[in-house]
Design a protein that fits this description.
Blueprint: E1 39-40, E2 63-71, E3 89-91, E4 104-108, E5 134-140, E6 150-151, E7 155-161, E8 169-172, H1 186-194, H2 199-203, E9 209-214, E10 217-225, E11 233-243, E12 245-252, E13 259-261, E14 267-271, E15 303-311, E16 314-325, E17 331-343, E18 348-355, E19 362-369, E20 376-381, E21 384-387
Parallel strand pairs: 1-9, 10-18
Antiparallel strand pairs: 2-3, 2-4, 2-5, 5-8, 6-7, 7-12, 8-9, 10-15, 11-14, 11-16, 12-13, 16-17, 17-21, 18-19, 19-20
């Protein structure tokens, strides 16, 4: 799922763009140098310190990204290094660490659209007199530190692991016609798109903006009351069995080839965290007392349990809910839930649980894909294991 459109960024150059005039379709070789500025769109994303969502007051900020820029005019191979071949590779980790295969480390603070280069000793400039354009890519592995980065001619791959709170994203900069202001003529827009991104576009205030895509599935859990005493049952944990290790194609010629291959992974239990990534609070989450039981079940006021969990895309999940019932002296137990559907990368889903309590061992789950409509209802009876 794409989370932002390409934006127009102002140039730091002190010469304002006033339009195409005779003799200025091409830059002269002695034109002044211009620095490489890279921006970040708003992905409304998540990160390993807990789900981050701009709509919920948790914007994407204070994160490290890893950036590449390869010559698109010559279709330079992704094995090229900026430290030794700046024409083929303009930006990568070798600018700061000569033997690095990683992208160049960039810091995005969330308040300034431009990234900073924390390990750089100086600014990087587009080559003077070079009319070639460059494609900009990036990846985000959250708090995960990859053991290696593998670069081949047409892709860059990274082994990754997920833990339920960690997000994995890839990004690229694409200049659309709609992103260019109306004061550019159609001829100018054509030239800018043809030469994106380069010194030519940068001198005219058009710089790459990285737009990120999520490659995991995001689940959110809500609980609904079924009786006047439902509030006496608390949810103490929710686990989802998910594949957890995969091969992340962070950069590829074709965007469709980017993503995580989990096919060789085994399964492990991942647990729903709080919104800040910490462990789910115990003895906290229960339905509201005094709920209007005359309303249809899933129109009653819901309570969200914790934050969200990020899992590998799959066709179904084995899940488990740990409950504690304060009635009758108190009893704890677990209820198994089978969640089936078509869980896609970059999509968010709501799992709705009807709380019946331990005396009525039934858990009802409803999945509702965000933004796509439709729902699936799954009834799981006799799946409850009581414990004293």
């Amino acid at each position: 799922m794409l989370f932002a459109a390409a934006l127009l960024l102002p140039s730091c150059a002190d010469r304002a763009w006033v339009g195409v005039v005779d003799g200025e379709y091409d830059d002269s070789e002695d034109a002044f140098p211009v620095p490489v500025l890279v921006g970040v769109g708003d992905p409304s994303s998540t990160k390993g310190t807990g789900a981050v969502d701009a709509d919920e007051g948790h914007p994407f900020m204070d994160v490290n990204l890893y950036v590449y820029a390869f010559n698109s005019t010559t279709r330079a191979p992704f094995t090229a290094k900026a430290a030794s071949d700046s024409k083929s590779c303009l930006i990568d980790g070798s600018l700061d660490y000569p033997f690095s295969n990683e992208g160049r480390k960039a810091f995005f603070n969330g308040s300034d659209i431009y990234v900073d280069w924390p390990d750089a000793s100086s600014l990087t400039y587009y080559p003077v007199g070079n009319t070639d354009a460059y494609d900009f890519y990036a990846y985000f592995t959250d708090d995960y530190q990859p053991s290696r980065v593998m670069r081949s001619a047409d892709r860059i791959e990274i082994p990754v692991e997920i833990d339920g709170a960690r997000d994995i994203m890839s990004g690229r900069a694409v200049l659309s016609n709609e992103a260019l202001p109306d004061y550019f003529s159609e001829t100018e827009k054509h030239l800018l798109k043809q030469r994106a991104f380069s010194a030519y576009t940068a001198r005219r205030g058009v710089n790459p903006v990285l737009n990120f895509r999520h490659h995991l599935t995001r689940l959110r859990f809500e609980i609904y009351p079924t009786s006047e005493e439902s509030h006496k049952v608390v949810i103490n944990s929710i686990g989802v069995k998910s594949r957890y290790s995969g091969n992340f194609t962070a950069v590829a010629r074709s965007e469709e080839d980017e993503g995580i291959d989990f096919s060789s992974s085994s399964y492990k239990w991942l647990y729903l965290p709080e919104a800040d990534g910490s462990s789910l609070k115990r003895d906290t989450y229960h339905t509201l007392e005094g709920a209007n039981l005359n309303l249809p079940l899933y129109e009653r006021q819901a309570v969200q349990v914790g934050g969200t969990i990020l899992v590998a895309p799959d066709s179904d999940y084995e899940a488990e809910v740990e409950l504690f019932d304060y009635r009758g002296g108190g009893h704890s137990g677990k209820s198994a839930i089978d969640i089936s559907g078509d869980f896609l990368p970059g999509h968010q889903y709501v799992v709705r649980i009807a709380v019946y309590g331990l005396l009525e061992p039934q858990v009802t789950v409803q999945l509702e894909p965000w933004g796509t409509g439709g729902h699936i209802i799954i009834d799981n009876e006799d799946n409850f294991t009581p414990r004293n």
